[in-house]
């Protein structure tokens, strides 16, 4: 006669009342694995490496107003101790593109300058193909707008200045009785907005890094710090 206590089949790993075939241990392991993968993916997105950028590209981004400087996106000049190399690091805003309220405004402009005290800045801003002209008197131009050198920096960075315009090429005009002006023609795009993904989603700030040579760019780097609000940082080694 068989023992009734041994007639029941052994129970599986399922909880009481759960349908046969459901493995809770496997489900728990898969959940943990998916969580780890998700955290790794998210972490990689936050700590994406800085993209090496050339100094001219960096200056263009600065002139376009793309460099950020806040608590979450600091802009720093990091100096490697004992060397003449600095590392400029920071984050770039998305590219500035036409928006729904953007308009294209075309006009002739002029900028009063001092060719003596602003010589270095003029050499930095003006492209190689600008013209120079000496005149007895600056001609009057109807509806000409007066801009600043900062405006010109931005306009050139966005390629809004037609340096070889047929009627109004970019020209440094020196007046014989004193004074000098930059004159030219601009196609300005107003009300630019941050670029988005093809799906219309926001683009995250992009980290960047630029190596600079202190003896060659010392004065220019100091001006850059003062204009951009960077936080100088000295470290023993940034590598």
Q: Given the C-alpha coordinates, what overall shape results?
A: flat
- Tell me the total number of β-strands: 12
- Tally of contiguous helical segments: 5
Taking pLDDT < 50 over at least 5 consecutive residues as the criterion, the unreliable ranges are: 39-47
Estimate the mean pLDDT confidence.
79
Strand percentage, roughly? Answer: 25-35%
| Distance separating the two termini | 81 Å
How do the SSEs run, as a string of H and E? HEHEEEEHEEHEEEEHE
Largest sheet: 5 strands, mixed
Describe the structure concisely.
This protein is an alpha/beta fold.
Give an overview in words:
This protein has 239 residues and is α/β, with parallel strands linked by helices. It has 2 domains: 48-92 and 196-235, Signal recognition particle alu RNA binding heterodimer, srp9/1, CATH 3.30.720; 104-190, no CATH class. It is 26% helix and 27% strand. The chain is built from 5 helices and 12 strands. It has helices at 24-46, 55-63, 119-125, 149-157, 214-228, and strands spanning 51-52, 76-80, 85-92, 96-97, 104-113, 131-135, 145-146, 171-175, 180-189, 193-194, 206-213, 231-235. The termini are far apart. Mean pLDDT is 79; it is low at 39-47.
Provide tags for this entry:
Signal recognition particle alu RNA binding heterodimer, srp9/1, about 240 residues, 5 helices
Write the layout of secondary structure elements.
Elements: H1 24-46, E1 51-52, H2 55-63, E2 76-80, E3 85-92, E4 96-97, E5 104-113, H3 119-125, E6 131-135, E7 145-146, H4 149-157, E8 171-175, E9 180-189, E10 193-194, E11 206-213, H5 214-228, E12 231-235
